[in-house]
């Protein structure tokens, strides 16, 4: 996609600031998933449908993530000023580093993210403050969603000020559209939302990719 700048620019924000505790000793973001670091898979999939990539993580993760992304699309790092405040704070930090009006946020542990679905999320978010998938009539997929950056940053700031870390909390004050499963299936397989937390999930994903 052309490298546009300005309000129409679409950014991909990849969240990687967690500690992968269910995964074990290693950082799952850079773990080798069937020959390619998991975060690299996410970035490579997003590249075709966004104008730029922002990676949110902790300072000490930067060298390993830079290695994982070497030779791939350029990425800007958005470092958590205060680490370990949860994924919602990571979304806030990542969105602050974007320049366009809208950004897609994707967790680094969603290696099957579907570009076509991302494009549909951008389209559905137009004129609104977010487009958020919902699975099983229940689970809002806030870490594979499109946000209008300015109101989402503001909503995250307010939530954190209230001492609220829940990832759905900022949505309470946003004008957002929900995409339910029937609609999502029109755009892409729901495996787009599969996220990898444990070694067993990682091995299963690896087997499918090989
Ligand atoms: N910036 C930031 N991102 C986070 C934080 N916690 C989780 N994330 C990210 O949010 C996404 C979803 O989080 P989880 O699946 O819980 O990942 P995780 O926290 O690394 O793994 P667990 O320790 O097993 O929960 C991942 O992309 C994480 O990198 C955090 O405290 N700060
Ligand atoms: Mg976690």
From TrEMBL:
It is found in: Cytoplasm. InterPro entries: MobA-like_NTP_Trfase, Molybde_CF_guanTrfase, Nucleotide-diphossugar_trans. It catalyses: Mo-molybdopterin + GTP + H(+) = Mo-molybdopterin guanine dinucleotide + diphosphate. Mg(2+) binds at residue 109. CDD domains: MobA. Its cofactor is Mg(2+). It comes from the Archaea. Its main location: cytoplasm. Residues 12-169 form the MobA-like NTP transferase domain. GTP binds at residues 15-17, 28, 56, 84, 109. One of its GO terms (biological process) is Mo-molybdopterin cofactor biosynthetic process. One of its GO terms (molecular function) is molybdenum cofactor guanylyltransferase activity. HAMAP family: MobA. Transfers a GMP moiety from GTP to Mo-molybdopterin (Mo-MPT) cofactor (Moco or molybdenum cofactor) to form Mo-molybdopterin guanine dinucleotide (Mo-MGD) cofactor. Belongs to the MobA family. This is Probable molybdenum cofactor guanylyltransferase. The gene is mobA.
